[in-house]
Write a structure and sequence with these properties.
Blueprint: H1 3-7, H2 13-20, H3 28-37, H4 53-68, H5 72-83, H6 89-105, H7 109-126, H8 129-145, H9 149-165, H10 171-187, H11 191-205, H12 211-227, H13 231-248, H14 251-267, H15 271-287, H16 294-307, H17 311-325, H18 331-347, H19 351-365, H20 371-387, H21 391-406
Helix pairs in contact: 3-4, 4-5, 4-6, 5-6, 6-7, 6-8, 7-8, 8-9, 8-10, 9-10, 10-11, 12-13, 14-15, 14-16, 15-16, 16-17, 16-18, 17-18, 18-19, 18-20, 19-20, 20-21
Length: 420
């Protein structure tokens, strides 16, 4: 292909020639145009050991976009290639943040933690305040995913403290951290604290009256600064725009909210409304191949059907949920599914099967620092025993449920991933 064909009307042939000779550095936008016209993937520009910073920045942007499309493995591949090179420390740290998110999206929080720890050391040394807020927020999500609520809370608090003390002005980022902190209160069985935290998150987000429009403004600013050669400021605004789009398209966060709301509706006896929420969340999660949160939502659908007296439908759904839970790494999914399976088996008159499901749920529940979860499973088991006429065992289980409920713990509807 000729230089003229590659250049088109976007830039001159002389400029392309200077790029070929290594005397000019293309902007990220220009490199994207060149890649499209040459019909080459972005990876192609990483094959030369002398990668330009623009090529590396573009690869990082491609990795972030891959995450938005649910392509965690591709994002990981792109970032791994970036980190294999000698790159500026600020770019390396941002790449580590993206890599950690990619690992979490693939259900590998244990691998994400050391990546974030290393990035935080670099960011603390350089005092990159906004980046530190993001890093601590993601580290909190890792701890939450690993069922370490205390450590997660410390990270979210650290993110908020840095946000305030450094004067960071990014309402979308603040709303995200506050939302994560609110989720932590919710799953810890602290409804009043959760309400206050959710209200704070909403107040922060309310500063952004039109999030898609603001994302467009950020994108325009990024392109304007890029054209003047101010790449650092351009990237800052580009990242702000990307974060808004990520928030708007976060299927897992939407699933989390549907799970929480559905659980509340079930407790209020509004089974039909609850099932619609669970069903919508499950449908979206299937599209992105989620394995961690989906079993919770399908179990919620089964319990909604059970509450509506649709025992056969509940049975079909809980069989699906059991199958899904075998492919999940989340122990809470196993507990949730077998608790509902126990209730469903009892409703079908299969006492032995019901007992096995409850015992399996309790076997896993006792390994998790989650007394409220044990209380819920034990209480449901006690009700089944009582209905079967086994008064002595029912009384014992009711007592165990009461004792577990008095301890501090997490709500049983805890989701396995915060927006990884």
């Amino acid at each position: 292909m000729s230089l003229a064909a590659v250049a088109g009307s976007d830039f001159s042939r002389a400029f392309l020639n200077q790029i070929e000779l290594g005397r000019a550095q293309p902007s990220t936008q220009n490199l994207r145009i060149i890649a499209r016209r040459l019909q080459r993937p972005i990876d192609y520009f990483l094959e030369d050991p002398g990668d330009s910073s623009a090529a590396l920045e573009l690869a990082l942007a491609e990795a972030e976009i891959s995450l938005l499309h649910g392509e965690g493995a591709r994002a990981e591949s792109l970032i791994t290639r970036i980190l294999a090179r000698t790159v500026p420390i600020e770019l390396r740290t941002r790449a580590q943040l993206t890599l950690a998110v990619a690992l979490m999206k693939q259900g590998r929080p244990q691998e994400a933690k050391p990546v974030l720890d290393d990035a935080i050391v670099a960011a603390e040394r350089a005092q990159w305040h906004q980046l530190l807020v993001e890093l601590y927020d993601r580290l909190g999500s890792v701890h939450y995913f690993l069922r370490r609520p205390h450590a997660a809370g410390q990270c979210f608090d650290r993110a908020l403290e840095r946000y305030e003390s450094a004067g960071v002005a990014d309402p979308v980022l603040k709303a995200r951290v506050l939302g994560h902190r609110a989720n932590l209160h919710y799953v810890a069985g602290q409804p009043m604290e959760a309400i206050a935290a959710y209200e704070s998150a909403i107040a922060a987000a309310a500063q952004v009256l039109d999030m898609p429009a603001l994302a467009g403004i950020y994108e325009g600013l990024a392109l304007s600064f890029q054209q003047t050669g101010q790449y650092a400021r351009a990237l800052t605004y580009a990242q702000k725009g990307l974060r808004i789009f990520e928030t708007l398209r976060d299927v897992r966060m939407a699933g989390q909210l549907r799970l929480n709301m559905g659980d509340m509706l079930l407790q209020q006896g509004r089974a039909a409304e609850a099932e619609r929420l669970f069903s919508d969340g499950a449908e979206h999660l299937r599209r992105i191949g989620d394995r961690e949160l989906l079993p919770h939502l399908v179990a919620g659908m089964a319990e909604s059907a059970l509450e509506a007296g649709l025992v056969e439908r509940a049975s079909d759904l809980i069989e699906e949920a059991i199958d899904l839970s075998t492919r999940s790494t989340d122990p809470l999914a196993t507990v949730a599914v077998h608790r509902v399976a126990g209730r469903t088996a009892h409703a079908r008159g299969r006492g032995d099967s019901a007992h096995r499901h409850f015992e399996r749920a309790l076997e896993i529940a006792v390994t998790i620092e989650n007394p409220d979860l044990r209380a819920r499973v034990t209480y449901d088991f006690a009700r089944v025993l009582e209905a079967e006429g086994n008064s002595a065992q029912a009384a014992l289980r009711f007592r165990q449920a009461y004792e577990a409920g008095r301890a501090d713990g997490s709500r049983p509807s805890a989701v396995s991933e915060l927006d990884a």
